[in-house]
Design goal:
Elements (H helix, E strand, L loop, with lengths): L23 H16 L6 H7 L3 H27 L5 H26 L2 H6 L1 H20 L10 H16 L7 H17 L6 H10 L5 H17 L5 H22 L40 E3 L5 E3 H9 L18 E2 L1 H14 L20 H17 L5 H14 L4 H9 L2 H5 L8 H15 L2 H9 L3 H9 L5 H14 L3 H8 L2 H13 L2 H16 L4 H6 L2 H7 L9 H11 L3 H9 L3 H10 L2 H17 L2 H8 L4 H11 L2 H17 L3 H7 L1
Antiparallel strand pairs: 1-2, 1-3
Helix pairs in contact: 1-3, 1-4, 3-4, 3-6, 3-7, 4-6, 6-7, 8-9, 8-14, 10-11, 11-14, 14-15, 14-16, 15-18, 18-21, 20-21, 20-23, 21-24, 22-24, 23-24, 24-27, 27-30, 29-30, 29-32, 30-33, 32-33
EC number: 2.3.2.27
Pathway: Protein modification; protein ubiquitination
InterPro entries: ARM-like, ARM-type_fold, ARM_PUB, Armadillo, MLKL-like_MCAfunc, PUB12-19-like_N, RING-Ubox_PUB, Ubox_domain
């Protein structure tokens, strides 16, 4: 598994500083710590060393650098033990070496933690980096007054030899590295020309990169996706090139080794579910403003606001061009990882024993999303290969293929279009009814991901996906994730009015959503509530929802202040209150006191919907509701507060309610007496 907490990639050219005004002891101790970090950066096993630093250039450069740092470590340790005071020139030298070793540590981390493809792409720059740092080391050692240091002759000689060798060192690039990179580029060029890559050459290249299995390829993909996160300051060309490499790896993984090697945790959900920690109070800053779930991959958009990557990506893919929180125009679609917040969330989870790895990391096919002709053609070739295998695949292979399609469908609108156009939907629908629970889960989530792209909604509905999705939603033989993602898919489809009307004609759909609303996780219940909202927006469905018992279920969600679904439930009730059946059911449930309480204690959105419901009841039910409102001692102060501090819509509704009460029941003098 890739290190999801890996920080933004820093390059050796970044501005690095020595410790500010250090004492001699702290400076030397810091140098010893840096040297040890560098020496232990490489795996102890030589074979693993060769495999982890794929480029021979960097293996040789890293080995040479480690040998130099070992000599420096001997110097630092002797200085620590025998030289409590240092001359100004020695302090200056050590400060310069501190900067050099910081750069070496960063460069070594790049070499040992990076994707093999990235190492090939960057082989020349990395080699130049090792050479530049070696020269800086030599320059720093030139000003070191060895005669003033109380160190052994052996260390003195080794340091002097190191300085001479470092000064003479030349850039080293193994001839095989540029050759292998040219072969990789040739494969990508074939794909861009819409040609199937030469399988023998593809296998040879993958072998040279030590990508000898599906699991090797999957780990490489994870690391490439880390490169995208680390390269957010890089040029668009570099990000696109990394995306092309990831697409090539995914294609090669499928055609050479099959859709295998996926781990269960790689596709097990998108966000941490708060149902797993409902007893905990999650800090508001840790919640996504869109989904209200704990963020696992927070990103900053152009307006400066932070969202969960998957949530804001869905928002932008849906055609929205404004920031959900601030309302400002989103000037570009670049998502900048909020590494500081991510570290805080991870530390909070670690302190409380919450396992983030149990949910699907937001990378795995999601962060590498910039489309290029090469990546789109590679995706097309990959999808076509998978779909050719699917009809005759074994049960296990079906599960893996569905999982691959699920991951591919997470990678942005262009990928979703490619997958749907290739005819994936009709082949995925039968998998919704297979006995294997994991296959069902992959298939329903793939359809959910595809439905995010608006033109795919028609393809999905025309292919006959509605009834199978409802079956999954209502089934007791599938997983909770499958049921919840089925509800999310129905919610996505119900954005189209005709499909919302169609869902209303399916009694099982309404019953299944109401059941999930009562028994699902917080995320599943929120998707169910959102789907019910869209279904109720079609006026012909409101009586059906009321008849199915929606009002009673929704009112139960308003009572606990910490239910997490008050806003969603109140929004659906506000729509149902637009029908006579809805108003009658609300009154029969004696909901007016609860709605009045919401005017005082709920969120701005909840107050807005609560006053809208009370306005509808007062207009159509009349005096009994008005009398009940006026008998509540908190009603008028809450209404007054809403008139002054509510949202624009809430103020309009509150003003209309006040005028209606005046007309029907009260004089202005009586009203003033109630304030």
């Amino acid at each position: 598994m890739a290190n999801s907490s890996r920080p933004r990639r820093r390059h050796f050219g970044d501005t690095l500083m020595p410790p500010f005004n250090p004492s001699v002891a702290s400076l030397v101790q810091s140098l010893i710590g840096l040297a040890n970090d560098i020496i232990h950066a490489a795996p102890a096993d030589g074979h693993k060393f060769r495999r982890s630093a794929v480029c021979d250039s960097q293996r040789r450069n890293a080995s040479a650098m480690i040998r130099r740092v070992k000599v420096l470590l001997l110097l630092f340790e002797e200085v620590r033990d025998s030289c409590p005071l240092l001359s100004p020139s020695a302090i200056l030298c050590f400060a310069e070496l501190h900067v050099v070793l910081q750069g070496v540590k960063i460069l070594m981390e790049d070499c040992f933690e990076s994707s093999r493809m990235w190492l090939m792409m960057e082989h020349r720059r990395l080699s130049e980096g090792f050479h530049r740092l070696t020269q800086s080391m030599a320059i720093a050692l030139e000003i070191l007054p060895m005669a003033l240091l109380d160190v052994s002759c052996e260390v003195r000689e080794q340091v002097e030899l190191l300085q001479k060798q470092a000064k003479r060192a030349q850039i080293y690039v193994d001839p095989e590295d540029p050759k292998l990179w040219r072969e990789i580029q040739a494969l990508m060029a074939q794909i861009e020309r819409k040609e199937s890559p030469d399988m023998i050459k593809l296998m040879e290249v993958f072998g040279n990169l030590d990508l000898n299995s599906a699991s090797d390829c999957q780990r490489e993909l994870e690391k490439l996706e880390d490169e995208v996160e680390g390269a957010w300051e890089a040029s668009e060309e570099v990000r696109f090139r990394i995306n092309d490499l990831a697409s090539l790896i995914r294609f090669g993984k499928c055609v050479l080794y099959g859709a295998t090697g996926l781990q269960e945790e790689e596709v097990s959900g998108t966000l941490v579910k708060l149902s797993d920690c409902e007893d905990l109070k999650v800090p508001e800053d840790f919640r996504c403003p869109i989904s209200l779930d704990l963020m696992t991959d927070p990103v900053i958009i152009s307006t400066g606001q932070t969202y969960e990557r998957a949530a804001i990506t869905r928002w932008m893919d849906g055609g929205h061009q404004t920031c959900p929180k601030s309302g400002q125009t989103i000037s570009h679609n670049v998502l900048i990882p909020n590494q500081a917040l991510k570290s805080l969330i991870r530390q909070w989870c670690d302190d409380l024993g919450i396992n983030l790895s149990a949910s699907e990391p937001a990378h795995h096919g999601n962060r590498v999303s910039q489309s290029t002709p090469t990546s789109l053609e590679a995706t097309k070739l990959t999808v076509e290969f998978l779909l050719r295998q699917l009809p005759s695949a074994t049960e296990k292979s079906q599960r893996h293929i569905a999982g691959e399609l699920r991951l591919l469908a997470k990678c942005g609108s262009d990928n979703r279009k490619v997958i749907a156009d290739a005819g994936a939907v009709p082949l995925l629908i039968p998998l919704l009814s297979v006995p294997d629970v994991r296959t069902q889960e992959h298939a329903v989530t793939a359809i959910l991901n595809l439905s995010i792209f608006p033109p795919n909604k028609e393809i999905i509905v025309e292919a006959g996906a509605i009834d199978p999705l409802i079956h999954v939603l209502c089934s007791s033989d599938t997983s909770d994730v499958a049921r919840e993602n089925s509800a999310a898919a129905l919610f996505s489809l119900s954005h189209v009015t005709d499909y919302a009307a169609l869902l209303g004609d399916k009694p099982n759909a309404i019953d299944g959503l109401l059941q999930l609303l009562q028994q699902g996780s917080l995320r599943g219940r929120r998707d169910a509530a959102s789907a019910l909202f869209n279904v109720s927006a079609y006026s012909g469905n409101r009586a059906k929802l009321v008849k199915a018992g929606a009002v009673e279920v929704l009112l139960t969600l308003l009572s606990p202040p910490d239910s997490g679904l008050r806003d969603e439930a109140c929004a659906v009730l506000a729509v149902l209150a637009g029908s006579s059946e809805g108003r009658s059911a609300i009154c029969e449930m004696n909901a007016v006191p609860l709605l009045i309480d919401l005017l005082r204690s709920s969120s701005p959105k909840g107050k807005e919907n609560a006053v809208a419901i009370l306005l509808s009841l007062s207009r159509y039910v009349g005096r009994p509701v008005i009398k009940e409102m006026m008998n509540s001692y908190i009603f008028m102060p809450s209404l007054d507060n809403l008139l002054n501090n509510g949202t624009p819509r809430a103020r309009r509704k509150a003003s209309s309610l006040l005028r209606h009460i005046r007309r029907v029941e009260l004089s202005p003098v009586t009203l003033l007496g109630n304030f």
